[in-house]
Design a protein that fits this description.
Structural class: alpha/beta
Distance between the termini: 62 Å
CATH class of the largest domain: Alpha Beta
Number of helices: 10
Number of domains: 2
Number of strands: 9
CATH superfamily of the largest domain: Spore Coat Polysaccharide Biosynthesis Protein SpsA, Chain A
CATH topology of the largest domain: Spore Coat Polysaccharide Biosynthesis Protein SpsA, Chain A
CATH architecture of the largest domain: Alpha-Beta Complex
């Protein structure tokens, strides 16, 4: 029996929007996929009814306590057999029923890439916002403080063999860290110009303080980009204001966003120097 082209991994724990995630998977017109569902031992009657309803469409299903989001995602990776993996976790969903069908030609044309990714539709309360990260924006500096979205990213399964699974000691940044690790190691990324998924902004990261999230970023910088801690604080200030002036005075559209990233990068690094001055080289 041939292995599937795509493994869709869904993790869940008492998510009230699980039904829309399930419907978006089972209604895909492209059918060469397997669906792996990792439940953290949900107790909600609505969640349990939804899981029972859709279990017949799942290639693998388990419901048991886990150690957090990334532990559950790693369980999914261990069960996956597809060439490409996408994480469509509970609450998020594909943009429409042709999302996989639209993406397949691009992953076929870019088998040498570690990641092929598209845009997302961000949902927050009553607002819907299309969001794209163009490939030309990707560089080492971008991945210091930003990332692409796993809900719209197809990742070659062998990348998790080469670079390991997600680090479950982190609560919210391990997917960013894995993308950054792959990019900094020289792996290729390819963007496509259409929306792949809808992303619910009310996930776990919205319940954790910004400072706690920031310190998770710092731990990754220490490991992969130690040069960050050798930057003089006065130089950071200069870069921050330099990019502020450039993008406010001269640029709009994509260039505006490009320089916004750089201004915010230096702003973030400056914040680190204020929180952790003992790590700076005097």
């Amino acid at each position: 029996m041939a292995l599937p082209k795509i493994s869709i991994i869904t993790i869940n724990y008492n998510e009230p929007l699980l039904e829309r995630t399930c419907e978006s998977v089972v209604n895909q017109t492209f059918k060469d996929y397997e669906w792996i569902v990792i439940d953290g031992g949900s107790t909600s009657s609505l969640t349990l009814e939804t899981l029972i309803k859709h279990e017949k469409n799942m290639a693998y299903f388990i419901s048991e306590p886990d150690c957090g989001v990334y532990d559950a995602m790693n369980k999914g990776i261990e069960q996956a057999s597809g060439d490409w993996l996408i994480f469509m976790n509970a609450g998020d969903c594909f943009y429409d029923n042709k999302s996989l069908q639209s993406m397949v030609p691009y992953i076929d044309q870019n088998k040498n890439c570690a990641v092929v990714y598209g845009g997302i539709l961000r949902e927050h309360k009553e607002k819907l916002e299309p969001y794209f990260i163009k490939q030309k924006r990707l560089d080492d500096l971008f991945f210091l403080v930003d990332t692409i979205m796993h809900q719209s990213s197809f990742i070659r399964r062998d990348m998790f063999v080469k670079y390991g699974k997600y680090r479950d000691e982190f609560r919210v940044v391990s997917d960013w860290a894995k993308f950054a690790q792959m990019y900094w190691a020289g792996e290729k990324f390819k963007s496509v110009d259409f929306i792949v998924s809808k992303y619910n902004l009310n996930g776990i990261s919205s319940t954790i303080s910004r400072d706690d999230i920031f310190m998770e970023y710092v731990k990754i910088w220490i490991e992969y980009q130690p040069w960050v801690f050798e930057i003089d604080r006065r130089l950071l200030k200069a870069y921050k204001y330099f990019y502020s002036i450039l993008y406010n005075l001269f640029f709009t559209g994509e260039l505006h966003r490009y320089f916004t990233i750089r201004k915010n990068t230096y702003k973030t690094l400056l914040k680190y120097t204020e929180m952790c001055p003992e790590r700076l080289i005097k």
